[in-house]
Amino acid sequence: MTAITRLTLTDFRNHAQLDLGAPLAAAPGLVVITGENGAGKTNILEAISLLGPGRGLRGAALSAVARHHGPGGWSVAAALATRDGPVQLGTGTSPEAPDRRLVRVNGAAASAGALGEWLALVWLTPAMDRLFSDSASARRRFFDRLVLALHPGHGQQVSRYEAAMRERSRLLAGDVTPDPVWLDGLEADMAVHGAAMAAARADVMAALAGRLADAPDGPFARPQLHLAGNQADDLAARLRAARPRDIAAGRATDGPHRADLLVTHAAKAMAAAHCSTGEQKALLIAIVLAHAALVAERQGRPPILLLDEIAAHLDMARRAALFAALQGLGGQSWLTGTDRELFLDCPAATRIQLPLA
User: Fold this and answer.
1) Cβ–Cβ under 8 Å, residues 230 and 199
2) Which of 77, 176, 191, 349 has the fewest CB atoms within 10 Å distance of its CB?
3) Comma-separated ranges of CATH 3.40.50.300 domains in the chain
4) Are 207 and 297 in contact (CB under 8 A)?
5) Phi, psi for residue 32 in degrees, rounded to 5
6) Which tens digits make up the pLDDT trace of 201-254?
7) pLDDT tens-digit map of 264-276
8) Complete DSSP assignment for 10-40
9) Which residue ranges does the chain devote to CATH 1.20.1050.90?
10) What mean pLDDT comes out for the span 101-107?
11) What is the side-by-side strand order in the sheet with 121-124?
12) 200 in Cβ contact with 154 (< 8 Å)
C-alpha cells in the first residue's frame, strides 16, 4: 500500500510547525486524530489533500492557507512508503509569491499534476453531508475526484477544457464580433479535452455502478449511480450551433462541464436528495468504500482516505462496520473527531491527540 510515514506542516493554517514523524513511523492503516474544536484536525487533512492536484478539500486559495500573522508562505512535506520504495513529496508557497504553488517530488521541481502519479486521495467532510441536495457542480467535483484517483491525467484534461471554455465565453461576451476561426479553434480544443473527460468519467461510472449493483445490502445504504449530461459526441458542432444561445446566456450551455451525478437509495427507490441526512451520509460512505475497493483492484493500492468527523452521526453498529471496512481495504485512512470514545473500537489505529504533548 501507499502510506504517509511522516508529515510536516510549516506555517499552515493554525500550525506554525507540526511534525507527525514519530506517530506515523509504522505506516499504519488507520490514523485517528482527536482534539477540541479549533485544535487543527481538519487543517491536517487539508494539508494532506494538497499533496494531490487541485485546491484541496476546502477549495481555498493558496494564500488563504498561510498561517495568520505568519511570514506569508507555507509548506507541507510528506514521506511516503510505496511499493516502489520511499518517495518525498512537498508543496507550498513562498512569502514573495503567495499565490504561486511550488511542488517538489524527491527534491526536484514538478507540476501539481505530477502529484497524482504518487497519491490517490479521496475525502469526506461534514460540508459534504448534504452533497446530494447541493449544486450539480459540487457533485461533479466530487465525482471528478473519484475519477482522478483512477485516471491521474483527468485533472489536466478538465483544466484545459475549462480554460478553452472561459476564453470562448470571453470572446462571445465581447463588444466586437469574434473571429469565427478563433472560436472554431477553441471549440475544437473543448471537444478534444471534453471527449477525454467524458471517457474517463464513463469508465469509472460503469465500474463503480457495477460494483455497487452487485454489492449485498449491508449497514450502509446501497446507492444506484447515474451520470447525466456527460456526452461529448460531436461537441465542436454542438458548440458552434449553440453560439447564439450561449451569447444570450453568457456561458456555455452544452458540454460535459454540465454533467451531474445522480444517486438513488436502491432499497427505497428514492432520490438521495430526498433521503434523511443520515441516509445521505451512509450513501456517501458506501460510494467511497466501493470506489476505494475499485482503486485497489485496478492499481494494487487503495487511495488514502481523509474522513473528517466521519463517526459523529453514525450509530455504534455503523461505526464498527466502517472501521472494519477501512481495515479490510488494506490502505491508509485518516479519521478525525472531537470525541475519543467514538474511536475506542477502531482496531489497530495510530492515535494522535492534539495538541501534541
Assistant:
1) no
2) 176
3) 1-120+301-357
4) no
5) -110, 120
6) 999 999 999 999 988 778 888 999 999 999 999 999 999 999 999 999 999 999
7) 999 999 999 999 9
8) EEETTEEEEE-HHHHTT--SEEEEE--TTSS
9) 125-300
10) 96
11) 121-124, 304-307, 333-337, 30-34, 349-353
12) yes
**Cα(244)–Cα(257) distance, rounded to whole angstroms?**
19
* Residue 176 or residue 198, greater confidence: 198
As given in the structure block, the three cell numbers for residue 198 are 467524458
CB-based burial, 279-317: b 16+ in 10 Å, e otherwise: bbbbbbbbbbbbbbbbbbeeeebbbbbbbbbbbeebeee
Answer yes or no: are the C-beta atoms of 352 and 32 closer than 8 Å. Answer: yes
Cell of 84: 516502489
Q: Does domain 125-300 have CATH number 1.20.1050.90?
A: yes
pTM of the model: 0.91
Question: What are 108-133's pLDDT values in tens digits?
Answer: 999 988 898 899 999 999 999 889 99
User: Which positions ≥6 away from 80 have C-beta within 8 Å?
Assistant: 2, 3, 4, 5, 86, 87, 88, 89, 118, 119
What is the full DSSP assignment across 251-268?
S--SSGGG-EEEEEETTT
Residue pLDDT, tens place only, 42-75 = 999 999 999 998 899 999 999 999 999 999 999 9
Report long-range pairs for 70-75 (Cβ below 8 Å, ≥24 apart): 70/11, 70/16, 71/11, 71/95, 72/98, 73/11, 73/98, 74/9, 74/10, 74/11, 74/12, 75/8, 75/9, 75/10, 75/11, 75/12
Q: Which helix (DSSP H) or strand (DSSP E) does residue 156 occupy?
A: helix 154-173
Q: Which amino acid is at 281?
A: K
